[in-house]
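Late entry, written up from scratch paper. The run itself happened at the end of the previous shift, but nothing got recorded in the book at the time, so transcribing now.
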Amino acid sequence: MRLITTTGLTLQQAGRTVLRDVDMHIDRGEIVTLVGPNGSGKSTLVKGLIGALKPLHGTVDAMRGLRIGYVPQSLAIDGLLPLTVRRFLCLPFRHDGDAMARALAEAGVPDLGEAQMRTLSGGQFQRVMLARALLMSPDLLILDEATQGLDQPGAADFYRKIEHVRRHLNCAVLMVSHDLHVVMAASDRVLCLNGHVCCEGTPDVVQDSPEYRALFGTGTKGAFAIYRHEHDHDHHHDHEHDHA
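Output as recorded:
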């Protein structure tokens, strides 16, 4: 099932055209990753998809009633503010205790409800942010540089959790990341951006493309693939996993 489609999407930020003529789609159950150098338009595209930026040209067509869960690049919380995880999860919408407990368990942090946000480690904070997104019961989960600040083992652990969430909820996942080695292996499809779509396809196809290699060099292929899974392309069943 197609969840969201862009056709000829052109987006501006601060009067400057950042992305031109983007044609893309996301289907239920798949993991799609956006890669590209700094300033290539990855976060701008996300803003266009969630409606935070209006297209200069082109269209964004979403499935009726599409629910999006969004984990932003960063979130500043006043370190002096006494704020428990449960209270944080109720901003800006209140949720019942059972729903919050389920979301925290799904995100892998079932015991953090009463913890103070300011005491969380980087990995715990990202898991709580994931739980907050899961409270939306999303059809599409968007992660914008969600592992920024985590070390490689922490990032790989987070992506394993995302794979579990995808299987369990049968939602689509759109990831924006600089963790090329990990994310490329964790994806069904990859879109490489540099002001437009340079190349797209399966991770292996993209990594072999001249456009990708021109941007990232030839040494990126599989260099640190600490997480890898094989797809049978039937997202209603569990996939085989192979941890390298």
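Residues 81 and 118 are 8 Å apart (CA to CA).
(Scratch paper discarded after transcription.)
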